[in-house]
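Lab meeting prep.
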Amino acid sequence: MNQTDPLSEALGNVRLSGAIFLDAELSAPWGFASPPASAGAHLIAPSAEHMVLFHLLVEGRASVRLPGQPRLALEAGDVAILPLGDAHELWNGRGAELTDSSALLPKILEGAVVSERGGGGGPVTKFICGYIGCDRQARRFFLAGLPPLFKVNIRRGSTGAWIESTLRHLASDREPAGAGRNALLAKLAEALFIETLRRYMSELPRQRTGWLAAARDSAVGRALGAIHREPAHPWTVASLAEQAGMSRTVFAERFTRLLGEAPLGYVARCRMQLGARLLESTDDTVLEVALNAGYESEAAFNRAFKREFDVPPARYRMQRRRGDRMAADSGAQ
C-alpha cells in the first residue's frame, strides 16, 4: 500500500499566509500583554478567516500564559503556539510591567518587521513573533484538538534548526529591506509553523485524540490522506476501510474516536472545502463546481453548502472576491 502524508495533503488544500511582525531583544524585566488576534486580524490579514499566533524564543528564557492559567516556561529553541490566537501574556523577570502589544499595531501595519530593544538591564531574551493566517477549514482540520497554548522545541531536528537560523538572520537584519525580503519571511513563517506541527505530531502521547493524532495513526492516516487527495471520489466506509487495511467496523470506530466524527461526515466537509476553494479560484458555474466537488446535482450541493457556510454558493463567491479585493487594496496603500 502506498505511503501517504495526510498532513501535507491537508495543508495543500487550505490557504495559509504567514508573516513575521516583531524581532525583540529585551533585558529583564520586560513583558507584553497581547489582546486576542481577532482584535486586529481584520487590519493585519484582511483575507484570513482565522489567525494563529506564535513566538519563537531565540535566546534566553521567558514565560507565556493564558489569562487565569499556569505559566508555560520557554527556553531557546522553543516555539509557543496559540492555535486560537487567544489573549495572553509574554514576559521575563519578576515585577515585569506588561506593555499592551496592540501599541505596536501602527508599526506592524506599515509592513516592516518591528524591532524592539530595551528592558530593565537583567538577563537578555531574544525572540521573534509572527502569525499564520488561514481559512476556517484549517481550524476544523489540522488545528482541531490542539490545546489553546503549547510549545515545541524545533532545535531537536535539523530542519527546524535550519528554519530558525535563517529566520533569525533575516528578521534581525538591520540593512534596508531588499526586494522580496518580506515575502521570504512570510514563507519562512509558514515553514516554521508546519515544522512545529510535524514536531508536535511526532511527540503526541498515544492516548491523545484530534486531527494530528489521527494523521499519525498508520491506518486512519492512510484513509485521511486518500480523502484529502481525492475528496470528490465516491468514498464509502468500506472503501476507506480498505485504504486503512481494516474491517469496516474497526475502522469506523477508530476514525470516530480519534476525530470525533464519522468517516462520511468528514468526507462531506472535505468536499465543502473543495467546493469553496473552486468558487474562490475559478469561474466555473455552480453546477460545474458541484460536480467537481463530488455532488450529483447543483441542488444537493447548494443545500449542503448553505448548511456549512450559512450562505448559498453564488453569494459566498461574491463575498469572498469582494473581501480579496479589499485586502489587495489595503495592501497597496
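Slide two material, second protein:
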Amino acid sequence: LEIPNFERETVYLREILASREYQRAKSPVTLVLGKDISGHPVVADLAKMPHLLVAGTTGSGKSVAINAMILSMLFKATPDQVRLIMIDPKMLELSAYEGIPHLLSPVVTDMKEAASALRWCVAEMERRYRLMSALKVRNLEGFNRKVSEAAARGEPIKDPFFRPSDMEEGGSWPVIEPLPIIVVIIDELADMMMIVGKKVEELIARLAQKARAAGIHLILATQRPSVDVITGLIKANVPTRIAFQVSSKIDSRTILDQMGAETLLGCGDMLYLPPGSGFPIRAHGAFVGDEEVHRVVSFLKQTGSPDYIADITKYRDEEESRGGGDDEDGETDELFDAAVRFVTESRRVSTSSIQRRFKIGYNRAARIVEAMERAGIVSPPEGNGSRTVLAPPPVED
C-alpha cells in the first residue's frame, strides 16, 4: 500500500552514484534512474534494454532524468568506451554538453542534420556488422575482445576491407581497433517527426531492430506521447519505457500500454517498464542541477578535446547521392577544388587517401572522386579498382 508523504524528499544523483548498486555495475552504459518506493537505488544497463523511450508532459522531470542518465554514463565510461550523438531541437537542454570528449559530433540542433546523423548511424551499423562477420563474432563485446587480444599478442588484425590500391606511398595496411558503444540521444522526438517525418521513423525503427549487437543504442524522449509521434513501428522495437506524469489515460496507454502514468505526481515521479516485463516499477527520479552539469562538463573539457567525425551531419545515403534534385553533388562540395589540387599534384587518387588527407567520411570522399571522374580529371576505375589521374598538375603562378 502506497501512502503519500506530505514532505517531498529530493533524490540527488550523487547519492546513487555513490551507491553499491552503481559502483558494482560493470557496464559502461549504466543509467541512474532514481529510487524505488522502498528507497533502494534503481540503476539499469542500457546495453540490455537495448533502447529506451522516455515520455512525459512539460515539468514532469523528463529533461532532468535525461541529464542524470547522461552524467551516469560520463562517470562510468571513457571516450574510448562510449561515444554520444546528441540531437536537441530545443537548443537548450543538451547544448550544455557541447565540447565534451565523448561527443562524435557537435550537438545537433537542425532537424535536417539530425536525419543525416541517423543515416550515418545506419551506415555505421552496417559497417560494424561487416567487420564482425569477417571476424566471426556475434556482438560488439566479442569483437572488441578479439581485437584487444590480438593486439596484446603483437598480432594486430588487418582491416579486411582495405584495398592495396588505396595505400599511399610509404603507408602501411591499417589495422582494426576496438570500437566504442554509440548512444544516440534525441531530446524531442515529436519536433523531429513533424519536420522530417516518415523517413526518421524508418531510420529509428531500423536502428532499433538491428543496432543492438553493433553497439548502437537509442534514448528517445518526447513530451507529446501521441500515436503520431510514438508510432506502432517505434513502440514495437523499443521495449523499455519510462513514463513521467502525462495528461490523460490515453497518453499513458500509448507509452506503457497500460494506464497509471496520468496519476503520477510530477517532478520526477516515474513508472519504469523494464525490458521483458509487463509490470512497471514506480520510482522517484534522481535530481541533478544545471550547476552540477556545468561542473562535470568543464572538468571533462580539461581532460581532452572531442574528436568529431565531420561527415555525420552531412551524411546522405546512396539513393540520395545518386538522385538529382536540389541535393549537392561532389563538385559543389567545398573541398572539391582542394581535393583536385591534391590529386593532380600527388598523381594518385583513391577514396581513402582523400578521406585521410581532408579528415572526412568515406561517402563524402567517394562523391568527390565520382565528381572528378565526371569532370574528366580522373579515369573510371579499372579492374582492380585503381584510377589514373588524367588532368595535368596545376600551373604555379
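Talking points for slide two:
Residues 252 and 261 are 5 Å apart (CA to CA).
Residues 111-135 form the longest helix (25 residues).
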